[in-house]
Design goal:
Elements: E1 3-7, E2 11-12, E3 18-25, E4 32-39, E5 46-51, E6 58-60, E7 68-73, E8 78-83, E9 92-100, E10 106-109, E11 113-117
Parallel strand pairs: 2-11
Antiparallel strand pairs: 1-3, 3-8, 4-5, 4-9, 5-6, 7-8, 9-10, 9-11
Length: about 120
Amino acid sequence: QVQLVESGGTLVQPGGSLRLSCTASGIIFRLYVMRWYRQAPGKERELVAHISVNGGNANYAGSVEGRFTISRDNDKNTVYLQMNSLKREDTAVYYCNALRTIVPMRDYWGQGTQVTVSS
């Protein structure tokens, strides 16, 4: 059974920092591109960041570039999202996604963790 379990979401003040974690089980983690998405109320889900299978390449949405950092530890089957200089518009449910891009292709989602940026 495949599980992606996110953690770390909470209420934080503007300008603060937070680190999200997503731990996978039931998959060969090192074969999966890992991605963080978010969905704010009334908005579509958007890709925030993704990281290659070996962690050597990462890309970010323009709205978080320079503030967020994605990383992974393949020994711990975990991907992280370090979020700094948080803004109110970062408020959303953050989802972890695991994507296997080689055959057989697979796509798995976590249940999400709420991040609220408010004073």
